[in-house]
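Sequence only, no structure available. Ideas?
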Amino acid sequence: MGYKDLSDAAKIVILSTLNKPRSLSEISKKWYGNRSRFYLDRYVKQINEAVKNGLLIREDEKYKAKFESILKEVANSIKIRFNNKQSKQHSEKYIQKIDYFYTNLKEFTVECYLDLEVIMAVVNNNPQKALDQELEFYFILPFLMRYIEWKDKSIFHLFLKEWNLEYYNKLTILLERKNVHILEKRKRIKEWVEVFRDIIKSYYPQFVKESPDFLRNNFDSFLSLGGARNEKF
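Reply:
I predicted one. Tokens follow.
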């Protein structure tokens, strides 16, 4: 059983615990304003099914996404989107870079881009919209955004406004600044910058050569390749 086969409750718990363990009461309160929601028997059973299938880890009274398994789910989903031979060859390198970014630089990248507050910012705190997006979208969104900014900053601001991602953008920048000491201590700032830039430039080839005007008129198509649904957040 993979992520797509899980119940909505299990998916919300996974999205809420990518960077650290949390209790069901905290997760319920954050998303639904009700601390007891996920303690209902049917939800506990569904959440524990994800533990049984190796996508969640239970630590006393808290749950934590099993990150290695989640990354495999992301990789498999990306592979499905590349449905011809040339794209599949490209996807292998792309997946390796994504995996490196979230594994070798995990202490910084997961904290900045996959924290619960960040996930909620993507979908304006709406749990149904959080469930509507493909899992890999949350992992790839930072690169999609910087790719658009790299292509044209005026279009980037239009994109943020159109997709209601202005707060998400501010929050990720704030977290980068707050946590940069992690990279400084390990002398890995240059590595983070280079890997980030490499992923941006290696993103889906069909868009790399297109003009900013083309991108402006095709935000939906561009984001759908990363796992976003066409409905605005």
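Residues 166-186 form the longest helix (21 residues).
Hope that gets you unstuck.
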